[in-house]
Specification:
Length: 140
C-alpha cells in the first residue's frame, strides 16, 4: 500500500500525554488485537482462519480490529483477484517488531493463571509448535 492510501486510512493514535505506553495501547489495545497479532506471528492468515483461532470473537469484531490494525500500519491486507475473493493478512515490519511484547504478554498471562490456580491452556493462544519454539528461544 502506498503512503497516500495509508495516510487516508490512518487512525488518530495521537496520545494526549506523550506517554509511550499510552501510544502503544492506542494501537494494540483491545480484547482481540493482541490475540490476532499473536496468531499472525506465524505468518499470513486468511480471515476465516483468524475467526477459527479466536472463536469467542464475532466476525464483525474481528473485521473491525483488522481494519484498525491495517490503518495503523501494523498489518497488511492482500486481496487476490479470484472468485470468491481471497484475502490474506500479515504483519508489517512494524507489526513484527511487536513480537517481544506479545511473547511477554503471553508469558505474564501464563504466570498470572498459575498464581491464581487457573488451568493454563497455552495451546489456546498459540497456533503452532513453531511459535512455541520461537518463544522459548526468545526467553532463553
Amino acid at each position: 500500500m502506498d503512503d497516500s492510501v495509508r495516510s487516508k486510512r490512518k487512525r488518530s493514535t495521537a496520545n494526549r500525554t506523550g506517554c509511550a505506553v499510552e501510544a502503544t495501547i492506542s494501537v494494540i489495545g483491545g480484547l482481540w488485537k493482541p490475540v490476532i497479532l499473536f496468531h499472525l506471528l506465524d505468518g499470513k492468515l486468511r480471515f476465516n482462519a483468524i475467526c477459527r483461532l479466536t472463536p469467542a470473537a464475532t466476525p464483525r469484531m474481528i473485521t473491525l480490529q483488522l481494519r484498525e490494525l491495517e490503518a495503523d500500519g501494523i498489518i497488511d491486507r492482500t486481496i487476490y483477484p479470484e472468485i470468491p475473493p481471497k484475502v490474506e493478512y500479515q504483519l508489517t515490519e512494524l507489526g513484527k517488531s511487536l513480537e517481544p511484547v506479545l511473547v511477554s504478554m503471553c508469558n505474564w498471562g501464563t504466570r498470572l493463571q498459575e498464581l491464581n490456580g487457573l488451568p493454563v491452556d497455552t495451546g489456546s493462544c498459540r497456533s503452532t509448535s513453531q511459535q512455541q519454539e520461537r518463544i522459548d528461544e526468545l526467553m532463553t
